[in-house]
């Protein structure tokens, strides 16, 4: 099978296509013939070597990047419960630091617990964009444990994580204040934000203008960290996605979220699938590129301004 590997850290040019033996599923695992794999910022962190700074004890290269895959099950290991079978169209969220590595490959092996059916009505490229980002937000909201009617602010609201943050928070009954540039305002409004303020250097003050007592929490998809703390009420919370944990102020609690802690939480993963089917979550594909153009996909992502997710097509 073909796979995309990182043998040394560096720019997009270090991504190489190689031929590897087909992996074999073990107990309670399935093998997926990948048709689409989403390109996420965490893949860039891995390729560049930044991941080694953020996470302790990262094993050395080589790696196969990618955490999001959609495809068709072509083998089932022993010990399964019958929930998944050969021929099923599925999505999976996997760890590129795990024993089977990541999703940028024609075939991947994943724990059955990390695999659920493709949402009805969704094609495989769109479905591949769901789990890693939406699960990150779900874990963050669960950590905040806000009650319906409370207020959460979302930074980076037009991005993939920010978009899911708006929609999942609204599904939880929360009031959502979000940031947007003028070009993204209509998008953020469609995603369901109750109040939209203009993004920029003075974002904390703008959030305070519409929530004078401070918001109950922030989901910080824009990585503003200490800059956004003034928007939060005393004793509130902030969800961060790159491991930032403070220092904070005024009793604000930081919740650094690692999606790796939820990769085998089938109930959470399947609930996200159901929320797509119910129209509560929007799948957004920015562009589909052939897998051979993976370096270009990474360049586009690093250039910024991508709305939705870039997707690699492994179907050819």
Automatic annotation (TrEMBL):
Record key words, sorted: NADP, Oxidoreductase
Lineage: superkingdom:
Bacteria
Task: Give the source lineage, highest ranks first.
Answer: Bacteria, Pseudomonadati, Myxococcota, Polyangia, Nannocystales
Name its species. Nannocystis bainbridge
Record InterPro entries:
ADH-like_N (IPR013154), ER (IPR020843), GroES-like_sf (IPR011032), NAD(P)-bd_dom_sf (IPR036291)
Q: Does the keyword Disulfide bond apply?
A: no
For this protein, the parts annotated as crossing the membrane are none
Q: Enoyl reductase (ER) domain: which residues?
A: 10-312
Protein name as catalogued: NADP-dependent oxidoreductase
């Amino acid at each position: 099978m073909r796979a995309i590997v990182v043998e040394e850290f560096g720019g997009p040019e270090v991504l190489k296509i190689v031929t590897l033996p087909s992996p074999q599923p073990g107990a309670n695992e399935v093998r997926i013939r990948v048709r689409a794999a989403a390109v996420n910022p965490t893949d860039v962190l891995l390729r560049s070597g930044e991941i080694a700074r953020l996470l302790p004890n990262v094993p050395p290269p080589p790696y196969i990047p990618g955490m999001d895959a959609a495809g068709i099950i072509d083998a089932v290991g022993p010990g399964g419960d019958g929930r998944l079978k050969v021929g099923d169209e599925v999505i999976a969220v996997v760890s590129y630091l795990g024993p089977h590595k990541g999703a940028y490959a024609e075939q991947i092996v994943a724990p059955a617990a990390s695999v659920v059916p493709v949402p009805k009505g969704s094609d495989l490229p769109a479905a591949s964009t769901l789990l890693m980002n939406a699960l990150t937000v779900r874990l963050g909201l669960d950590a905040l444990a806000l009650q319906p009617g409370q207020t959460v602010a979302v930074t980076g609201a037009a991005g993939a994580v920010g978009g899911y943050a708006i929609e999942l928070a609204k599904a939880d009954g929360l009031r959502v204040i979000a940031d947007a540039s003028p070009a993204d305002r209509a998008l953020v409004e469609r995603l369901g934000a109750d109040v939209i303020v203009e993004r920029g250097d003075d974002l904390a003050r703008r959030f305070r203008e519409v929530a004078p007592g401070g918001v109950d929490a922030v989901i910080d998809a824009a990585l503003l960290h200490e800059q956004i703390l003034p928007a939060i009420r005393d004793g509130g919370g902030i969800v961060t996605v790159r491991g930032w944990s403070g220092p904070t102020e005024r009793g604000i609690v930081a919740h650094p979220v690692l999606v790796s802690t939820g990769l085998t939480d089938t109930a959470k993963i399947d609930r996200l699938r159901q929320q797509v089917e119910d129209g509560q979550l929007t799948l957004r594909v920015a562009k589909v590129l052939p897998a051979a153009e993976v370096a270009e996909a990474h360049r586009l992502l690093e250039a910024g301004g991508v709305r939705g997710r870039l997707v690699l097509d492994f179907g050819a």
